[in-house]
Write a structure and sequence with these properties.
The protein is an all-alpha fold. Helix content is about 85%, strand content about 0%. The radius of gyration is 19 Å and the shape is elongated. The mean pLDDT is about 95.
Length: about 70
Amino acid sequence: MDPAIQEMQKKIDWINGDPTLLRSYLKYEKAVSDEITRINGTKREIASKMKKLGLPIDQIAEVTGLTVEEITRL
């Protein structure tokens, strides 16, 4: 088995062995997920405004990190 996978499995076993640690980890994971969702929403808002201003889609993609397809659908 890949050493990186083995190391990850050890961490998972360690977290699962401690209910308090598991709750803390899950809370952290949700906070990270919520922040990513917020950032992606903000990117889409900015891209939409840039598109309404008539900026080229390829430039919007470069600035926001969204794909051309995502911007086209806005």
